User: Which sequence fits this backbone?
């Protein structure tokens, strides 16, 4: 019973996820909270006030001008009663209305009239979530101190897949509990601010996957990079609202939602495509496993095995160093490199940080089983000039989410 003696006003707005509001009320009450529901006209199209009254055991309010309320000012009573205003689901329209400070219905008026913290659990189509106005509204709400719970990703009611799903009722309750449990600065707020930190208006360029250096028309030199790490970073940045361009070596992955993708084969191609994009970019992340050398003279015809040659050698020449060239630009984006090493990981990573003039470097121990090349998981130690941060072994998408937040934080300092 972590929410004993807590008064929660639950705002229910007009999205399909409103059907989960009844479950959310029950789970909040399981923890001892007293819940009073305020529903908008849109919300009533998806769930009835009667259902919410039954599960909350309190009257449901839907009208700004309520003759039944003491002094006919239900909004002031509820605004003062609440220890937390929780809006779940919060539609894109709700975000816009809160940002503008509208006060033309009960819920928006309570939000203006309350001194209690306000938490919102966004729920909308993934394209609406990524839309610039939504991300700009979100940024302003975060700046004002609102707590943002989610959204999650997955299949949506409209058939799209991506970010915009309301968190599950139990996840929301956990965040509410965290909020009340923390002493000074709410950990829920920190979590929410991190997870919802907006990158709207920014352009991130990310290299991913391997390169292929042709030997002849049928053979090449390459490596085991699958592109999973780079694509996960792209997805994480896009989900926070950045415009993302992936310069991708050959991989078997689908392009993450709302990212642009430029397919290349060789290091020279990757260099050319990247340099054409980065001048206007805010962040460049070199996650690709780029071949350091290419074949000096690529044979036009398939090289034949001959009876008298047991050995053969191929002359190699150095490839351009993409990340170093980006970092050397007069107006360079915030530049992040990776260091895939099998020994002395930290020493080599720090050497690359300095030699390539990077802002951050992600040291990746690729000798350890279960992480690095072509694995679903990874672990990184991220270095900057005077410090480091560990991202312990986790799924690459989780690593990417944390890394993107770290980059966003460092980039702003
Ligand atoms: O693709 P996955 O299977 O998910 O695996 C992820 C990964 C292991 C490939 C990734 O996490 C990683 O570590 N990428 C960097 C691999 C690498 O080539 O590291 P490096 O230490 O050789 O290169 C150092 C940095 O310089 C890297 O940022 C690299 O992209 C960059 N580089 C290297 C050579 C070159 N010619 N141009 C470059 O930009």
Assistant:
């Amino acid at each position: 019973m972590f929410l004993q003696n807590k008064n929660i006003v639950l705002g229910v707005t007009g999205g399909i996820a409103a059907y989960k509001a009844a479950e959310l009320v029950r789970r909040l009450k399981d923890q001892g909270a007293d819940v009073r529901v305020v529903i908008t006209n849109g919300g009533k199209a998806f769930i009835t006030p009667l259902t919410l009254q039954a599960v909350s055991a309190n009257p449901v309010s839907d009208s700004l001008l309520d003759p039944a309320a003491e002094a006919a000012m239900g909004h002031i009573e509820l605004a003062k009663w609440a220890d937390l205003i929780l809006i779940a689901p919060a539609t894109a329209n709700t975000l816009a209305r809160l940002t503008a400070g509208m006060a033309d219905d009960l819920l928006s008026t309570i939000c203006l009239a309350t001194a209690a913290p306000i938490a919102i659990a966004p729920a909308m189509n993934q394209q609406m979530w990524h839309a610039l106005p939504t991300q700009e509204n979100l940024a302003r709400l975060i700046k004002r101190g609102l707590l943002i719970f989610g959204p999650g990703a997955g299949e949506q009611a409209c058939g799209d897949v991506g970010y915009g799903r309301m968190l599950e009722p139990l996840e929301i309750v956990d965040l509410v509990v965290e909020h009340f449990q923390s002493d000074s600065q709410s950990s829920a707020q920190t979590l929410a601010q991190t997870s919802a930190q907006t990158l709207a208006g920014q352009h991130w360029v990310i290299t991913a996957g391997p390169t292929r250096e042709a030997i002849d028309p049928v053979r090449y030199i390459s490596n085991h990079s699958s592109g999973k790490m780079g694509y996960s970073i792209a997805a994480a940045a896009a989900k926070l609202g950045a415009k993302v361009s992936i310069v991708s070596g050959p991989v078997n992955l689908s392009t993450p939602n709302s990212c642009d993708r430029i397919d290349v084969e060789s290091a020279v191609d990757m260099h050319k495509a990247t340099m054409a994009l980065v001048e206007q970019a805010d962040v460049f992340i070199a996650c690709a496993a780029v071949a350091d050398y290419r074949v000096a003279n690529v044979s036009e015809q398939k090289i034949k095995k001959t009876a008298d040659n047991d050995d053969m050698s191929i002359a190699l020449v150095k490839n351009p160093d993409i990340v170093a060239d980006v970092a050397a630009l007069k107006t360079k984006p915030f530049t992040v490199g990776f260091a895939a090493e099998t020994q002395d990981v930290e020493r080599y990573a720090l050497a690359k940080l300095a030699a390539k003039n990077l802002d951050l470097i992600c040291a990746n121990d690729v000798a350890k089983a279960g992480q690095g090349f072509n694995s679903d998981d990874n672990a990184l130690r991220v270095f900057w000039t005077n410090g480091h941060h560990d991202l312990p072994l986790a799924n690459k998408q989780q690593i990417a989410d944390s890394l993107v937040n770290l980059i966003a934080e460092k980039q702003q300092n």
Observations:
- The longest strand covers residues 387-395.
- Residues 183-197 have pLDDT under 50 and may be disordered.
- The pocket of PMT is lined by residues 207, 209, 225-230, 267, 286-290, 292, 319, 321-323, 337-340, 352, 364, 366, 372-374 (CB under 6 Å).
